[in-house]
Amino acid sequence: MKPINSLVQFLHRIIIKRKIGTLTKVILKSYAIIIFLIHGGLIMYFGIIISTPFLSISFFILASWITIYIIKSISLDKDLKQKLILNTILTFIFVFIIDIGLRYIPGHNQGYMESNGNMFYFSAYRFHNLWNTDQDDSVEYTGIRMQETNEFIYHENYNNLGFRGQNILEKKPKECRIAFLGDSFIQGIGTPDDSTVPYLCQKILSSKFNNITTINMGRMGSDPPAEFQLLKKYFASILPDVVVLTINSSDINAMLTRGGFERYRNDGSIHATIGPWWEIFYASSFIFRTCIHKLGYDALLMKNSKRNNILAAKKLTESIIATYTYTKKQNVSFVLVINPLKEDIKAGRFLHGLDMTERSIKVLDKFPQISLLKEFKSKGLNADNSEKYYWKNDGHFNSKGYEIFAQCVVEHLIRLNEIKQNSIK
User: HSE on the CB side for 380, CA within 13 Å?
Assistant: First the structure.
């Protein structure tokens, strides 16, 4: 108890007896306000918050300051008021220590970037303002980039069009090009260049066919509406013979937070959705996150009862059909691949409404659909050993997982006779 009594006496001298200077008070309050406003602006415009203890400090300074101001404005006995102020400060210090502790518990209400050892909170609502149809992607992505988390580190090479892989040159006669559309699972987060799905598919197919080229058009955080815009933008540059669109349950979440094609304005810019007003508090405090989830909110900051998975599945289906319709007009083959996440493997089915999209596409029966959930099981990937194929914290495939992914896709492409006959060796 001695350390606690010493702390109380110290705070009593500083706070009650006003041994702390006015300038110091102004500095502390200014620091808290400035940090909070900066992060508020970041999340409102970019959807990003640097989720560090410094933000938590500003959050608790502001909260304690407001509480003390309220106490001072109430007509109370002077001694009682001083005790309340002192108890308020002690309470906020105690809560702050707990909040910092929760921050460093692995997997405890952490976002994707935080679980990978980064100090960033990304909003599911605002971050993808940057996916505009008129964005010059190649300027941002051309060259070599390093991917580093607390589980893996490697370099990625980006080509002349801003996609991962080798430069895309003029198409040769009799060349068969297969374009892969998708998110980070097609981009290949979690693995080097030589073990992404498009790269491995080209490697396997080249042992059976001539003049095969695969093009990796995967983008981290992308979804089918954005991929449809990307395909239209670069179609003339890549001239694919086959388009493989991959989806997973994160696309359902994207439809819930970003919407479908209605997100696009006429000029190609994005009309971004806005998260709940309290999102900055969610980003700032892990205690607040714990309370929010206890109240029934999920990682998208939605009440589970308010999630409209049916509407999200409908929007996802519409974007898939739009991509198929575009490829059909271009006389290009189209194949849909449904990729299970680790949680789908463990559940034994597609979650979050993706199963509804799967059923809708089957009923339409307009184009080939490859559902990898059963395929993975036949290859030996199941709920009991999924950790061998997916990164534990990151959630993406490792090289073994991507290898099985590629094998399944190649087997189906050959079975569906999607490779040009003049390419056969």
Answer: 7
